[in-house]
Write a structure and sequence with these properties.
The protein has 87 residues and is mostly helical. Helix content is 41%, strand content 0%.
């Protein structure tokens, strides 16, 4: 019975810790953004991150969406990576 109570207490503690309480606008597990933009930091750190971000935005195809705030974010490029196919 003691092990059961311990398991329940640990699970409850993990749930409470997972709540965080930050109250930010990004969802759970959302990547950190470049300050003053809606561009994930990964898109400015590597060409693969930039390609993934642009592919995600292009796939949304929502003509009624608000414009994306890019601020001073600069997407990463690479002189050595192989080109990726656009789908």
């Amino acid at each position: 019975m003691n092990a059961h109570k311990t398991s329940v207490a640990v699970a409850a503690g993990l749930l409470i810790a997972a709540c965080g309480g930050g109250g930010g606008t990004a969802g759970p597990g959302a990547p950190p953004l470049v300050p003053g933009s809606q561009v994930p930091a990964s898109a400015t750190a590597s060409a693969d991150g930039a390609f993934a971000f642009v592919s995600e935005v292009a796939a949304a195809r929502d003509d009624s969406a608000e414009p994306l705030v890019v601020g001073d974010a600069t997407l990463a490029t690479s002189e050595t990576d192989e080109p990726k196919a656009v789908q």
